[in-house]
């Protein structure tokens, strides 16, 4: 049975058929999924929209780096709100948080992202919860910041986009690597990463409604996770059954799902 470790099913693109999407997830064998916060408001919205999900759902609490510039200029109040969500027994991680320089080419916005990244790492340490990391075009700074907070972390670098050398650095810090639709897009560098990763550090994800696996087009849904598993099995020269089993066990170990 699959575990999808990164979804955004609260997104408005699912408002018309969320029930059907959840039914499709059951049909393809997804036993649980991790619903990930994006902006501050989504922390409440996703819990309301998915409170009657027919399969196990767990939540994160946090703010995507691309949304931190819209946060109120009262960081203590924001952190108190996020910390309150973390007290919910169904909330299992801080995320998604991190750095996204692809979306922020202005120096001051990148600096603000770094400030909030520090804050969220500290919050995760305080609450003893793993991180769901969004790192894009910012691996050097992200790794430096993580190291400033210790030599070992719990969490996952979701939708990994980077080199094997960068992946190795995250592995040394104790982090997992999340693989999704990008591995279906004939990216040789990412395929090399997927091939070399230790099996006990790989997580499957769809990032729905984003990162649709090829050759499919349009909105991504968790029901596409078999295509990702099949591609990963092909890259690693193993069986789909092995990929499903190992990645599900990894998700249970990291997130308690």
Protein model, in words:
- This protein has about 260 residues and is α/β, with parallel strands linked by helices.
- It is built from nine helices and eight strands.
- It has helices at about 20-30, 40-50, 75-85, 105-125, 140-150, 165-170, 190-195, 225-235, 240-255, and strands at about 1-5, 30-35, 55-60, 90-100, 130-135, 155, 175-180, 200-205.
- Helix 2 (about 40-50) links the parallel strand 2 and strand 3.
- Helix 4 packs parallel to helix 5 and helix 8 (about 225-235) packs across helix 9 (about 240-255).
- The radius of gyration is 17 Å and the shape is globular.
How much is the radius of gyration in Å?
17 Å
**Average pLDDT for all residues:** 96
Q: Kindly report how far apart the N and C termini lie.
A: 12 Å
* Strand/helix succession: EHEHEHEHEHEHEHEHH
Write a brief structural summary.
By secondary structure, the chain is of the alpha/beta class. It contains 9 helices and 8 strands. An 8-stranded parallel sheet has the order 1-2-3-4-5-6-7-8.
Keywords:
9 helices, single chain, 257 residues, 8-stranded parallel β-sheet, alpha/beta
Topology of this structure?
Layout: E1 2-7, H1 18-28, E2 30-35, H2 42-49, E3 56-61, H3 75-86, E4 91-100, H4 107-127, E5 131-136, H5 139-148, E6 155-157, H6 164-172, E7 176-179, H7 188-196, E8 202-204, H8 225-236, H9 240-255
Parallel strand pairs: 1-2, 2-3, 3-4, 4-5, 5-6, 6-7, 7-8
Helix pairs in contact: 4-5, 8-9
């Amino acid at each position: 049975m699959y575990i999808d470790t990164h979804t955004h099913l609260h997104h408005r693109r699912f408002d018309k058929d969320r029930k059907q999407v959840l039914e499709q997830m059951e049909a393809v064998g997804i036993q649980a999924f991790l619903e990930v916060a994006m902006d501050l408001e989504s922390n409440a919205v996703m819990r309301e929209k998915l409170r009657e999900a027919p399969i196990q759902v767990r939540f994160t609490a946090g703010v995507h780096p691309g949304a931190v510039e819209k946060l109120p200029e009262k960081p203590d109040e924001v952190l108190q709100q996020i910390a309150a969500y973390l007290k919910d027994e169904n909330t299992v991680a801080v995320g998604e948080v991190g750095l996204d320089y692809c979306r922020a080419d202005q120096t001051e916005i990148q600096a603000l992202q770094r400030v909030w990244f520090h804050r969220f790492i500290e919050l995760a340490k305080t609450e003893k919860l793993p991180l769901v990391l969004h790192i894009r075009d910012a691996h050097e700074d992200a790794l430096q910041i993580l190291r400033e907070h210790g030599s070992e972390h719990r969490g996952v670098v979701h939708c990994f986009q980077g080199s094997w050398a960068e992946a190795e650095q995250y592995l040394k810090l104790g982090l997992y690597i999340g693989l999704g639709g990008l591995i279906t897009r004939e990216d040789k560098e990412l395929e090399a990463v997927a091939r070399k990763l230790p099996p006990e550090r790989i997580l499957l994800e769809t990032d729905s409604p984003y990162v649709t696996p090829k050759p499919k087009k349009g909105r991504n849904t968790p029901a596409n996770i078999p295509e990702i598993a099949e591609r990963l099995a092909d890259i690693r020269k193993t069986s789909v059954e092995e990929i499903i089993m190992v990645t599900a066990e990894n998700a249970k170990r990291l997130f308690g799902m």
